[in-house]
Amino acid sequence: MSEPDPPEQERPDRDPPKQERPDRDPPEQEQVRQAVERSRSGAPAVGAVVRDRFSADEVFQRIVAAADEEVTSGSRELFFSGIAAGFAITITVLLYASLYGETGGHPILSALLYPLGFIYIIIGGYQLYTENTLPPVALTLERIASLPALLRHWTIVLAGNFTGGAIGAAVLAWGGVFSPEAAEAARYLGTHGPETAWLDLFFKAAFAGLIVAGVVWVEYAARETVARIVIVYMAFLAIPIGNLFHVVTSFTEMAYVVFIGELSLYVGLVHFVLPVALGNTIGGILLVTVVNYFQTSERRLESARFEGTNRQLSLREWLFGSYAGRSYVPLIDTAEVSAVEDGETYRVLVPIANPRTESRIVDFAATLADAHENAVVHAVHIIQMPDRRSMRYGSDRNERIISESDRLMEGVRETIEPYDVECETSTVVSHRSFEDVFDTAERERADLVVLNWGDNQPWDAGHTEGRISKFTSDLPCDFLVLKDRDLDTSRILLPTAGGPDSDLSAEVARTLEQADGSDVNLLHVVKNPEDRAEGRTFLANWAAEHDLENAELTIDATGDVEKAICREAADSSLVIIGATESGLLSRLVRDSLHMDVVNEVDSSVLLAERPSNGNILKRLLGRP
């Protein structure tokens, strides 16, 4: 019988005696660790399952993120992106016809390179009808975007696709790109569609729409670019193999045979392109988009939008868009939903990009509002989202943005507090900050908008280019646009030739005269010295009508308005200019306003424009 091992010769696999350590894991963690180590199969014995793919709700949120960027893009941006997609489809037609001719129409080999143009489009982010136009349907179903906004997006993209496809087809037809075999194959492909029955085209296109819409959902569920490429390739390969039709490819094929004189344009459009377009659209929307939409949970919007369904468009807004109010709901908008009904309240809206640095314009707006009874100053912190899809949706992120914005707006509230006005603050996060200024003014029935203008503002010319469609209709209220150069209201220069915009300038000058004790200098320019007396009489009467009798009257007889303003501005700290020229505010937005008084004087400049019966588009074009 063997003796037990001595203590110093214990076997190495025996558990050492337990010792208490200050950093020892708690008993629960120790049990978990031991359970994992004891798992013989290698799989964890305890724990929770972590999904390695997106849920339906998460895919929906990613689609909403993409749709936000697309539905708020400018018309020019959409159109030229659509043209680029049309060019890419020309590559598909070129390769498909070439392989079709070389392989004798083999159903598999001829289609191997068909998806290449679609890969360029989707990976490159071009706008293609059916693929990029389906994500905005999710916004429309949720009543975040209106039907007119959706139709506008579709129309512009389809027009761009057709333009690019037509240019590419012209090059293929007249540029000698095709070999004889490829040219014959392209002629066959272009005439095969019109020879197919109308209903057959429609249902074949509907299945193609199903495939494309499925690509949208599956693509946004993919995590890697390689996976996206494989998905796009396999999906679009099914279109030629299944003898299906895509509207942009069909249009390009049709345009080719029209250019070589084998088909009339009317027959090609009515008997080929039209049924394919309808089939793609209806198939994509009804068969996939709506089905996938309803498979997500009812709480999907709560994580994709601030306050979820409480921020949806009204039924009238959803049907008629901007004609009935808003056409789009921003990502975040913390303002009260209901519009102000009290007609006795004077509301001043102040859009702010950086609450830390824009205290002067807030103080200026509060000064103007303080001259009215029952005045409300609403400061809106507008956050411009980047054009790229970097916004990740979620209620937690929304709350963090709102909390940080509210902290920054505390200084704004302190600026307004000394005045006898009510203060409101809110936050708007959107891809289209400039248009949201107008939407907020319309929704809240603002009486005045005070806007700070500068290179660092999200609504300057560089950010708003292509997004000024709001100026094609009347302004919602009075607008004051300030070019702030260390704002000082002690010495005011007010040039006037009469008109409603000069009336607004006079109201501002009178308020500053009474509130800040400002010295006001009224300037009127006449064509020649003989008109001095008449000009002085006009200016004196105008001053009396606007309660500015204490103002200094200056008559300039040079006939050059801009030079006269520049000369007088040298002794002024603030120049107030009414929009006596057609579309002054609109031209400022377009960065096409090059008045010396705006760009070269050292003092601050305040541009004033009042709504008129004629719309801004007519004024921009110089029409009565």
UniProtKB/TrEMBL annotation:
Keyword check for Membrane: yes
Alphabetical keyword list: Membrane, Transmembrane, Transmembrane helix
State its location(s): Membrane
One GO MF annotation is: formate transmembrane transporter activity
What name is this protein filed under?
A: Formate/nitrite transporter FocA, FNT family
| This protein's record includes keyword Protease | no
Basic and acidic residues: compositionally biased ranges: 8-40
PANTHER family reported for this sequence: FORMATE TRANSPORTER-RELATED, INNER MEMBRANE PROTEIN YFDC
The organism's taxonomic lineage, starting at the top: Archaea, Methanobacteriati, Methanobacteriota, Stenosarchaea group, Halobacteria
Q: Where are the transmembrane segments?
A: 78-99, 111-129, 150-177, 197-218, 230-249
Stored Gene3D superfamilies: 3.40.50.12370, Glycerol uptake facilitator protein
Q: Which GO terms describe its cellular component?
A: plasma membrane
Question: What domain of life does the native source organism fall in?
Answer: Archaea
**Membrane-topology annotation of the record:** Multi-pass membrane protein
